[in-house]
Amino acid sequence: MKALALFATAAAFALIGTAAIGATPDAPAPAVADTVRLATDLPPPIARRAPATVKVDLVTQEVVGKLADGANFKFWTFNGKVPGPMVRVRVGDTVEVSLKNAADSEHMHNVDFHAVTGPGGGGVATMAAPGETQTFTFKAMAPGLYVYHCATPMVAEHIANGMYGAILVEPEEGLPKVDHEFYVMQGEVYTDEAMGSKGLLNESIEKLLNEQPEFYIFNGGFKALTGDKALHAKVGETVRIFFGVGGPNKTSSFHVIGEIFDHVYPYGSLTSTPIKDVQTVTVAPGGATVVDFKLEVPGNYILVDHALSRLERGGAGILTVEGAANPEVFNAPPNPHKGGGH
User: Fold this and answer.
1) Which residue range forms the structural domain that includes residue 62?
2) 3-class DSSP assignment, residue 326
């Protein structure tokens, strides 16, 4: 089974491709951090039903991380990874936010939570120079999945460089139980150098303002949620994906190739009735959604923005499903043309 899974992964990669070979940098590359956030890196469901005070500690750090094979980029991050940590609270909770801007930062930073009812979503209250710490408190009043991001001018630049994340405000009764939860966010990276270039790439304000990204990324890197960072589950299990778009500019058409979403919570609303049996869900920049589905057939399922040119620019992940075949649901004879299609 393991060998079959590896073979299927190789076939899936034939679709999503690889980055091209580019130029060699003029200067030695600095130390490179692991800035990719695993899709499994999220808090568990909240067991308590009574409101509480929840402390959220964010550190804004500017670090060089791997963007693609042979290509690095200076990301601006919350807590050293892209996206920032997923925050999980319950409706009625009091949330105490502490934002520290690392002393070695070159820029001011702050945080705007879309889950906040109050001026700037906390952006004005948390504006911090390098070395400073700022705080504010808010009450989580409306259930839902919300985006947060740095709102320091130029806001689009801070977001494009990696400063976004998600906060989940659970309803009083919590969410329906599933076997696996995953945290995935899509973003864009704008570089002077063309996709495929090597070395330390530089941000391009011109391309940012013209909305011409070189890369589309899931969780901080070119096809980052593949290989040893792929998502994993088993036949018969249910999965939930908390999906958000940092942007700053492009709307996503989120789709899992070979699956149908059993339930979709559009716009990240958890108090509205979920939509059933959905193929693709549209998520705007600064927006989010929650999708649930049950796994019926083993194989590799590709997470994409169905504006599929973006897949070639890095917007892809793999959900590997292991287990017994299910010919009543899907049955295909051997095909000699390996690596084609999905």
Assistant:
1) 53-170
2) coil
Handedness of CA 68, 71, 75, 80 (dihedral sign): positive
**What is the pLDDT at residue 26?**
53
The distance from CA 188 to its chain's CA centroid, rounded to whole angstroms, is: 11
How many domains does the chain fold into? 2
The reply to whether 87 and 202 lie within a common domain is no
82: in domain: yes
3-state secondary structure of 247: strand
pTM greater than the 0.85 cutoff:
yes
Which residue from 323, 186, 160 is spatially nearest to 255, judged by alpha carbons? 186
Residue-level pLDDT at 335: 86
Q: Which positions ≥6 away from 257 have C-beta within 8 Å?
A: 301, 302, 304, 342
What gap in Å lies between CA 148 and CA 166, rounded to an integer?
6
pLDDT at 338: 72
Spatial distance between the Cα atoms of 254 and 249, rounded to a whole number of angstroms:
15
Q: Is the dihedral of CA 306, 311, 317, 321 positive or negative?
A: positive
Three-state SS at 98: strand
8 Å CB contact between 76 and 104? no
Q: Write down which residue in 119, 137, 170 finishes a domain.
A: 170
What is the pLDDT at residue 342?
A: 62
Q: What pLDDT does 24 receive?
A: 40
CA distances from 44 to 29, 50, 166, 190, 273 (A): 37, 16, 14, 33, 23
Q: What is the DSSP string of 288-318?
A: EEEEEEE--S-EEEEEEESSTHHHHTT-EEE
Low-confidence stretches of the chain (pLDDT beneath 70): 1-30, 339-342
